[in-house]
Amino acid sequence: MNPSDNSFLNVFNKEVGLKFQLYNSLFTALPFHKVEKTGVLVSIFLLHCEEGYAAGKGPVEIIRSFLEQYTSYSTEQEELDLLFRFVQYSERQVVLFDALEDAAFPKVNDLGGSGTMNHLYSEVVQKQMQEKIRKKFEDFSVRLVLTAHPTQFYPSEVLVIISDLAKAIIEDNTALVNSYLQQLGKTPFFKSSKPTPYDEAVNLIWYLENVFYHAAGNILSYVSNRFPGSILPGNRLIKLGFWPGGDRDGNPFVRSETALKVARALRTSIIRSYYEEVKQLKKRLTFKGVLHIVKALEEKLYRNMYLPAGKFDLTADKVLELLLEIRNMLETEHNSLFIEYIDNLVMKVQLFGMHFASLDIRQDSNVHHALLERIAGSAGALPEHYNKMGTEEKIGHLVGAASLDDLSMLEDEVHRDVIETMRAIKNIQDSNGEYGCHRYIISHTRTALDIFEVYGLFRLSGWQDKELTIDIVPLFESIEDLKNAPSVMRKLYETESYREHLRSRKDIQTIMLGFSDGTKDGGFLMANWSIYKAKEALTTVAKEYGVQVVFFDGRGGPPARGGGRTHQFYSSMGSNIANKEIQLTIQGQTISANFGTVETARYNMEQLMHAGVWSDLFSGGKPTLTKDEDALIEALARESYDAYSQLKNTSNFLEYLNFASPLRYYSEANIGSRPSKRKSGKLNLDDLRAVPYVGSWSQLKQNLPGYYGVGTALKKLEKAGRWNEITVLYRNSSFFRTILENCEMALTKCFFPLTEYLSSHPEYGGLWNMIHTEFRLTRGYLLKLAGTSELMELKPVNKMSIQMRQRIELPLLTIQQYALDRIREIEGVKADATAQDAAKKDGPEKDGPEKDAASKDVPKMKGDRKNVYEKLAMRCSFGIINAERNSA
Q1: Across the chain, how many H-helices and E-strands are there?
Q2: Which residue, among 104, 109, 111, has the nearest Cα to 14 in the 3D structure?
Q3: What does the alpha-carbon distance between residue 474 and residue 422 come to, in Å, rounded to a whole number?
Q4: What is the mean pLDDT of residues 76-101?
Q5: What are φ and ψ of residue 148, in 5° steps?
Q6: Which tens digit of pLDDT belongs to each residue from 381-422?
């Protein structure tokens, strides 16, 4: 451990740990019914849980003994009221902890240290690489794509409170902190209905306006000052992407009109950001000949915020023209006073244009295939016997398809929407610029035909080859699809019509690779390895055909979905992996956790930028791995895959997850517009989405997708006499070490005593013991490799944060398992009229005098015990996942 780590740990304990205890005492003043008693009882309940699990007790026994020892309640309704109040109390504790960590971020992280632009500047100057960095910045960029994946459980109102609370904590304004905590008590956390895709977009646009706009501007100013001439007008060093309103893969609620509405909101948002900045400029630029231009720009921006679609008369070029006119006058007539403000705004306009973030469109390949089968033979668009043709013949007809004017034969709304969305992209580009919407992503890409089908559908939608300002992006997800990806792309590059299309796109081909479904399909180590090998092969194939490949990584929050120490992963890449851009999705909790404030967003964006530049400038042209290292990881991945496949193929694998976790309630939690499964019907692993899959394992505190098979693989190769090779690989390969450090994080968040009661279950005991054995095996080998006695020992601040969050969430985890047990009991026993009558007779206990919104979250029995326990289990999910911050 570095001495600086101990220093930061001390700061963390003071700024987060100590202040949490201090401000937590203010919760006794929250406007909850019997809140003083609740606050005291929650603390006692936490200790009771810790002692109970240490003694080998299960959640039901722990709660039963607690209620008997510390309450005098005689009815089930009274007990449930208390448990719901515990949930409410814990939810607010999580919010307080989030705000404290946000406020302490600049103090517990070296904002000018390793991985920052300041660090990069020092390295460049020291090694005299100014010209190389300038050349690198000519076409390098980092693209962060905000997604609508439902892993964020805070309503937008609570997100604003967290932001304001963090500012009050930084200012040490206890009175204001107390007011915000009281506001939390009156603000409901539970969403009464599912958000629409547009609601999701509006929530994320808040981050664009309040965080990314400022953080990106600050980075650009720094880079421009430190590396003069490195930011060229034609290259956007930072790019933002956007999925809400464009991602229709398995989401029947996203339509073409949604995309148009979201695009309008994005345009309005960026114009509003420019307008607010110009308003501030007007206070400074009061000079003769300048002020009237500033006022004219202000008026144009204001008017364009409210003009109807199709009536916009302001472009990014026009804004730049006026700004450059102002700049010229400042430089020639006013001694360049305040010129740096103009320069900063110019860079923002060059960066964000009139689109703010590029709206990506995504749809499943199976939808395209079914649509073309329906179109075949209709209105002469495709031959009647198209469906019977071979692949080559189909491709020939697709690349020459004529426009489909009549959509009346498309009875399926999803099919009709594909064509309407492709037409809507033209309208978005007209209003927001080409960058407003220029990528079409194909989920479950398996063959070259999947890409040609989209190419053909664009032609059927009225687009012509020379005007097709769209990047068609295949998404490879399963282990098998990743393996086949190079041959698929080779077929594309060899087809002249598609190659011609690429030439019109500057010979750049973007390829998306999915970590989440890869992990679900092949396990943690095999997914990471398969994506690396796919990137290596795809880089080689692209070079053969003179194509610049760009990789777009579909990453979630936790290690199991490609999260964790992302910047370390990118900095470990060698010359064998294309590095023109770093592109990745930022999902749910990861947005608020890593990009929730201007400081955290700037820090994490700089980490990614530094990683991309470092791997190119300082890797010495070496590949990521030697041949021997490559072969060793291949062997480990194979063993890990076999172990995971054996578990996954166990007949009751998914039934176990559904039985023990809140999996079945994800779709009812009202946290996202998208269903938890791609298709209705019986639960199966292929259709189950990665978010509920990984998130359910996380709420079980087993985190299986983040490590399963790793321990078995290490053990088998150790028995084969290759342990020394593994230790050398761990020491020398940053890529391998980063994978295992991410695995270590997943292990740290496990807590098997929570579900140990299942170890002797007649149906699921075998599975529980298999998972627990692999957990212990993997933990043991990772500690042996790292030479430490505890997990994450070398990351003390991160470890302490996890430990403190785990204590906050332990009551929630215990209550959730208790609720699930009650539900299983009710489902396993016939409804008893006498018991139901008794429940009705007991009646709902009055909540007390308060009328706050949060108290309304507590449901009453009303004879439906199962429904109440289901709501209790779901409410626990909100607090648990928010406490984890990167659990799904």
Answers
A1: 36, 8
A2: 104
A3: 16
A4: 92
A5: -95, 15
A6: 888 889 999 999 999 999 988 888 888 888 899 999 999 999
